[in-house]
Every structure is written in C-alpha cells, then in structure tokens.
Amino acid sequence: MSEITVNITIADRPYRLTILRDEEERVRQAAAIINDRIRTYAQSYAYKDRQDLLAMAALQYATSALQFESEVVFRDNHLTQKLIEMDELLTNHLKS
After folding, report:
1. pTM more than 0.90
2. What distance in Å separates the CA atoms of residue 73 and residue 40, rounded to the nearest whole number?
3. What kind and span of H or E run contains 76?
4. 59-90 as b/e, with b when 16 or more CB fall inside 10 Å?
5. What are the tens digits of pLDDT across the range 39-81?
6. DSSP at 9
7. Terminus-to-terminus CA distance in the chain, angstroms?
8. What DSSP state is assigned to residue 48?
9. CA distance 21 to 6
10. Which segments within 1-96 are labelled E, that is strand?
11. Interatomic CA distance for residues 27 and 39, integer angstroms
12. Contact 37, 57 (CB under 8 A)
C-alpha cells in the first residue's frame, strides 16, 4: 500500500502525518471527532488551556475504547462457547 502525507489540525495545531492512503478518510474523521469533542468541552467547562480539553477528550476516548474491548472479549468468549456447544450438538446428532 502506498503512503501519503496529510496535514491534520487538532485543537488549532497543525500536524503533518505520513499514513497509508487507505487510512486517510478515517484519520480525517478522527481529527474532526476530536475537534468536535474539544469544542463541546470548551463550551461546557472552565479550562486553563487547550491541554485540559485534549486531556478530557483523550480520557473519554480511552475509556470508550476500554469498554469496547471488554465487550468484544465478552462477546468473543460467549460466541466461541456457543459455537462449541452447537458443534457438539450437531456432531452428536450426526452420529445418532
């Protein structure tokens, strides 16, 4: 895959990134989501500087990521167990 260089702005600060071409839309969307969250926090909370807003946005997304990972692990384990049970049922039925 080919790499491209993009300019992304987060919290009014530009960043030059080299990313895979296929990731460009996702990276731009992520930057837009972060900037939206920062704007929301800026309107709702008192803050000293943008670092405070970035920290709150990072905390929110890290918390969400951990929750999502936990749910995925639970679903994978639950799904794996159910598939094993179904396989045993089908195997027993076919042997009968």
Report:
1. no
2. 31
3. helix 50-95
4. eeeeeeeeeeeeeeeeeeeeeeeeeeeeeeee
5. 999 999 999 999 999 999 999 999 999 999 999 988 888 888 8
6. E
7. 52
8. S
9. 10
10. 3-10, 13-20
11. 18
12. yes
